[in-house]
Design brief:
The complex is a heterodimer of chains A (78) and B (407). Chain A is mainly α and 78 residues long. Helices cover 56% and strands 0% of the residues of chain A. Chain A has one domain: Orthogonal Bundle (Non-ribosomal Peptide Synthetase Peptidyl Carrier Protein, Chain A), CATH 1.10.1200. With 407 residues, chain B is α/β, with parallel strands linked by helices. Chain B has a single domain, classed as 3-Layer(aba) Sandwich (Peroxisomal Thiolase, Chain A, domain 1), CATH 3.40.47.10. The radius of gyration of chain B is 20 Å and the shape is globular. Classes of the chains: A mainly alpha (78), B alpha/beta (407).
Chain lengths: 78, 407
């Protein structure tokens, strides 16, 4: 799973054009990726194409950090 | 209000070059931008000839959010607009402090629409389409993107009028400034260049079949002409009231004197000569000029048998046999939605540099086209006033009259 997360971080960094080093488990996902209302739609697309898990925009309301994000993904992928 | 309307900047991205300097050189040299595109042939085109236009890489200029909403035509238009702003000495601070409008001609978003629908078909879920698709697949994509990027607060709309879209955009912008509704409008035209955009046009059998000689295939007015060649890119012009231009010490390139329009009220694709005649006569009347005052006509002529003959007939009726005429589509192919704007840029470059670009590949006219004065070799000549024609499907016609104004 760690490898999968690293690869996902790579993809997120590429899609949202940030340094991959800025993505850390304890960092705020919304602020780090600098997400506006439209970006969540793209985030759903990236996650689905990478993991096969389709999140809803609503899911991100309960997510603060990248750790929260990974936890949710692990639950959905299980 | 009856404001004078001037052009203070222009920018171009086309198959003749990626900026004004390159395009001016191509025009002077009579260089064609047409190629054979094997991808189109494999796709099923009857004629796979096209203008070759470089797709700008905007990663260094625009952020992800901005680029996400931009299809091909918006990228071309952004590139041309940046050059036009530089040319007009307008920076973001000026746009922030003044009301600047935008009117662009565009009449298709084929590639973006098809890619979005293909994705929905694949995923069977619109939620997996992403955020940019809607903004890329609306006809107003150019104006919605550029107005947002440059934070413009004036008039904001797209004009769809087939192959006269770019010309009508300049015409409507001219009327808005003339009437005092706006002081400055970014006007132009954009045209996507891809295999999805032009397939249905090729279906009509109107593209030249001369695939073995791409650069000789577009032969407007020549008796052997056998069809047009699609092309595209974008052209931007900064239209401004004379007072506004003087006030900010802007470089004034030219003045728009007249805009004539008409509709044929006839066949959906077969043009006539009455509509174009009306548009040219109306432009002359608005400019308060006799036909003899016009030094050069940049023709619409696309290299089709009936279209060119009818335009020649209309030109002969209004201007007679002496006025120099050339169709730059002999070099560019038909830039469709963009053509009316790009051809004003081309003619402005000629006017600025004292030459008439050639109607390449013209050797001999027919009964109609042989009656007008077609220039097939570059000539060094001062142009003081020119007329630019643009016509489109549905019988829409536009004619602009523009005068040199160096101060």
């Amino acid at each position: 799973m760690e490898d999968k997360i690293r690869e996902l971080n790579n993809t997120l960094a590429e899609e949202f054009e940030i340094d991959q080093e800025d993505i850390k488990p304890e960092e705020n996902l919304h602020e780090t990726l600098d997400l506006d209302s439209l970006d969540y739609i793209d985030l759903v697309v990236v996650v689905e194409s990478f993991t096969g898990v389709k999140l809803e925009e609503e899911d991100f309301k309960n997510i603060v950090t990248f750790d929260d994000f990974y936890t949710l993904l692990k639950q959905r992928m299980a | 209000m009856n404001n004078r309307v001037v052009i203070t900047g222009m920018g171009i991205h086309s198959c003749l070059g990626n900026n004004l300097k390159e395009v001016k050189e191509s025009l002077y040299q009579g260089k064609s931008g047409i190629v054979f595109d094997p991808e189109r042939k494999d796709f099923g085109y009857q004629s796979a000839l096209t203008g070759k236009v470089d797709l700008p890489d905007l990663r260094k200029h625009l952020n992800r959010r901005q680029r996400k909403s931009m299809g091909e035509e918006s990228k071309y238009a952004y590139k041309a607009t940046i050059e036009a702003f530089e040319n007009a000495k307008i920076n973001q601070d000026f746009i922030d402090k003044n009301e600047v409008g935008i009117i662009f001609g565009n009449d298709s978003v084929g590639k973006s629409t098809i890619e979005a629908i293909d994705k929905i078909r694949e995923k069977k879920d619109t939620a997996l389409l992403g955020s940019g698709a809607i903004f890329k697949s609306m006809n107003s994509t150019v104006t919605m993107n550029l107005s947002t990027i440059f934070k413009m607060r004036g008039v904001n709309m797209t004009i769809s009028a087939a192959c006269a879209s770019g010309s009508h955009s300049l015409g409507v912008a001219y009327l808005m400034i003339k009437s005092g509704l706006q002081d400055m409008i970014v006007a132009g035209g954009a045209q996507e260049v891809n295999k999805y955009a032009m397939g249905s046009f090729d279906a009509l059998g109107t593209f030249s079949p001369d695939e073995d000689k791409p650069q000789q295939a577009s032969r407007p007015f020549d008796q052997s002409r056998n069809g047009l060649i699609p092309s595209g890119g974008a052209a931007t012009l900064i239209l401004e009231s004379y007072e506004s231009a003087k006030k900010r010490g802007a470089p004034i390139l030219a003045e728009i004197l007249g805009y004539g329009f008409s509709s044929n009220g006839d066949h959906i694709s077969t043009p006539n000569s009455i509509g174009p005649t009306t548009a040219m006569q109306r432009a002359l009347k608005q400019a308060n000029l006799e036909a003899s005052a016009v030094d050069y006509i940049n023709a619409h002529a696309t290299s089709t048998a009936i279209g060119d003959a009818n335009e020649a007939k209309a030109i002969f009726k209004v201007f007679g046999e002496k006025t120099p005429v050339s169709s730059t589509k002999s070099m560019t192919g038909h830039e469709c939605w963009m053509a009316g704007a790009s051809e004003v840029v081309y003619a402005n470059l000629m006017m600025e540099n004292n030459f008439i670009a050639p109607n390449i590949n013209y050797e001999k006219g027919d009964n109609e086209t042989g009656r007008i004065n077609i220039i097939n070799k570059t000539i060094n000549k001062k142009i003081n006033i020119y007329l630019s024609n643009s016509f489109g499907f549905g019988g829409t016609n536009s004619a602009l009259i523009i005068k040199k104004l160096k101060e």
